[in-house]
């Protein structure tokens, strides 16, 4: 069976969706393909997010990822919206859900750590739901 493609999306594809892509690859790589994208891009990924993911998970997102537009990724099976206070981007998919995560941008490290830990929890939960055909 081919692995489903999961897109983690938000507006700027610079912080939460990037963390989710990295943690999706780490914890879900054997179950799904992990992508992230947004309706706008930033010149670089949020460097606080990069630092926290490096400290917590030893993943250097600057090496493996960049900010991407929705049109830059392949067609996906599952869309995970990170949570938007504005209009959330959308992609066609057989399953769509919104994780409603607070954006830690501009906040202290604890907000980034909390976001990373919540994303880790939700990614692991998503892995189990995909394995059990429970979406």
From TrEMBL:
Gene3D superfamilies: 3.40.50.2300. One of its GO terms (biological process) is response to arsenic-containing substance. Keywords: Arsenical resistance. The keyword DNA-binding does not apply. It holds the Pfam family LMWPc. CDD domains: LMWP_ArsC. Residues 4-129 form the Phosphotyrosine protein phosphatase I domain. Coiled coil: none annotated. This is Arsenate reductase family protein. The lineage of its organism: Bacteria, Bacillati, Bacillota, Clostridia, Eubacteriales.
